[in-house]
């Protein structure tokens, strides 16, 4: 754990990290492609889903390598793992390019470990295809060990550093449980957003005539201030664009229209009573 803390704060990685970030951003530029790779269409990051295939193939190949007479099946699984690691890596790099510096440092070592593992598995596949079964097994087990380190760092990124998690979701539990007045309807500008407090949680309100919708104001991607974001479109199609990385959320239901956010922005129950806008926990 001490090593991980040092890794998170290791600024000497930043020059490499910054250059790679620029490179990834310039290569994966089209917005539609970025949305696909972030998993905006899926409602969750795509990278961990794609990773299931090579990881599953490599683990099963290791089990088969321990059994007699299963060399061909193990070779087929390793070929599958090597072939499917590329798309998983591309999705991972795309997510990585929009993370904070501390997460990018850990992500860099996570990616490096996985690149080494992929190299070992590629060597294992070539050795097997050339009839060097024993060498193929050794390289395969070495690949699995290094991939295990990569997976550990990936777990740290996801669970200790919350990379890819919806950063807005915890705000829901801090909202008042009962209907609470957040302001008057007349104080809200029509067709624009306004920020009000519900308890101590900032909430983004959007008024469309007599209808008001409410979203958590902190962006689910990296807690950017949606209240400072531009509103595009009108009526039921109006969206707010996060000023930090451009995630775009529909104001009437929180649906994510463009990433890097992959999850919808949490919608808060909202009603108008006697000219007052009231909010509460879902
Ligand atoms: S904080 Fe990254 S898009 Fe909002």
From TrEMBL:
Transmembrane recorded as keyword: yes
A Pfam family assignment: DUF2231
Cofactor field: [2Fe-2S] cluster
Assigned keywords, A-Z: 2Fe-2S, Iron, Iron-sulfur, Membrane, Metal-binding, Transmembrane, Transmembrane helix
Rieske domain residues: 179-279
Membrane-crossing segments per the record: 74-94, 106-126, 138-159
Keyword set includes Plastid: no
Protein family per UniProt: Belongs to the bacterial ring-hydroxylating dioxygenase ferredoxin component family.
Protein known as: Rieske 2Fe-2S domain-containing protein
């Amino acid at each position: 754990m001490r090593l991980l803390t040092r890794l998170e704060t290791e600024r000497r990685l930043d020059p490499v990290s910054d250059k790679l970030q620029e490179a990834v951003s310039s290569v994966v530029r089209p917005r539609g492609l970025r949305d696909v790779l972030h998993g905006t269409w899926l409602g969750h990051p795509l990278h961990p889903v794609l990773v299931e295939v090579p990881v599953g193939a490599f683990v099963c190949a290791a089990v088969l390598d321990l059994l007699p007479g299963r060399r061909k099946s193990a070779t087929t699984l390793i070929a599958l793992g090597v072939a499917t690691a590329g798309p998983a890596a591309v999705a991972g790099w795309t997510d990585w390019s929009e993370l904070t510096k501390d997460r990018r440092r850990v992500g860099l070592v996570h990616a490096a470990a996985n690149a080494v593992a992929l190299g070992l598995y590629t060597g294992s596949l070539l050795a097997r295809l050339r009839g060097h079964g024993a060498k193929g097994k050794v390289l395969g087990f070495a690949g699995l060990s290094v991939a295990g380190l990569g997976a550990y760092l990936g777990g740290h990124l996801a669970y200790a550093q919350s990379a890819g998690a919806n950063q807005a979701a915890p705000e829901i539990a801090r909202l008042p449980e009962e209907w609470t007045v957040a302001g008057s309807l007349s104080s809200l500008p029509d067709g624009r957003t306004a920020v009000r407090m519900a308890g101590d949680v900032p909430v983004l309100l959007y008024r469309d005539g007599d209808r008001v919708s409410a979203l958590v104001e902190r962006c689910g991607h990296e807690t950017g201030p949606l209240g400072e974001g531009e509103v595009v479109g009108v009526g039921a199609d109006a969206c707010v664009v996060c000023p930090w990385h451009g995630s775009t959320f529909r104001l009437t239901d929180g649906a994510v229209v463009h990433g890097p956010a992959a999850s919808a922005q949490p919608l808060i129950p909202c009603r108008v009573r006697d000219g007052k806008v009231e909010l509460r926990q879902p």
